[in-house]
Design goal:
This protein is mainly α. The protein contains 9 helices and no strands. The mean pLDDT is 76.
Length: 221
């Protein structure tokens, strides 16, 4: 049986997920009414492209693309919110599986107890997941951020907000850079220095997080 805190978290999450789905469907219907139902095909193609890679946001600079970078960024962010909602809604079922589910549930319980003992780690976990979702490196994104958030013991709504914040910051950055660069975007995104810089930033942030965690643990009596 869920504890009161867990039950409240589940209610908050369901209401938030309902709001996300309702707003998204409202946007899709509005788009179809304004541009015709046949235009949903182009929307589907754009959504698939930004889901596979947020670099597709730079495609908004192409003349043959219906959507500009800001619109593609909004589509990408909406998809990330959907993905996070779907995973958060289904993790409870996964935890009921015989072997892998039990291991995930036990790891989640241990992580939650650790975060209750060391409140400072919860703040690090929240912002650490947001940074993980934000950084443009392989293995990051809404899927990884959501799973890690639950694994380290964050609540459903806490995980969702963290992932949403990181994903929102990421698409805003992509869209802003795309608009700033204009037609020069392709030479940048194919430059290996971008990946090297991303890995360097992640390493630096990981080192800083480790120092904060170590300080939190050592300072506890």
């Amino acid at each position: 049986m869920d504890t009161p805190d867990t039950a409240k978290d589940l209610v908050r999450f369901r209401l938030t997920a309902l709001g996300v789905v309702s707003a998204s469907l409202g946007g899709i219907v509005t788009y179809a009414v304004l541009h015709g139902w046949a235009a949903l095909g182009e929307l589907t193609v754009a959504a698939t492209a930004v889901f596979l890679s947020k670099l597709a946001i730079f495609g908004g600079n192409l003349s043959e693309t219906r959507f500009n970078p800001w619109e593609l960024g909004l589509i990408a962010w909406t998809i990330d919110l959907w993905v996070s909602c779907a995973l958060l809604a289904g993790i409870a079922s996964f935890e009921r599986l015989p072997l892998a589910g039990r291991a995930l549930a036990e790891a989640h319980g241990r992580a939650g107890e650790t975060l209750r003992q060391y409140p400072g780690l919860r703040r690090l976990a929240f912002w650490g997941i947001a940074v993980l979702v934000f950084l443009p490196i392989p293995g990051s994104g809404a899927v990884t951020g959501t799973l890690v958030g639950r694994l380290v013991g964050l609540s459903r709504i806490g995980t969702f907000i963290s992932v949403g914040a990181g994903a929102g910051a990421a698409v805003l950055t992509y869209a802003a850079v795309a608009v700033f660069l204009g037609s020069q975007w392709e030479s940048l995104v194919t430059n290996p220095l971008v990946l090297v810089a991303s890995v360097g930033v992640l390493t630096a942030l990981g080192w800083l997080a480790w120092r904060r965690v170590r300080s939190e643990v050592l300072s506890r009596p």
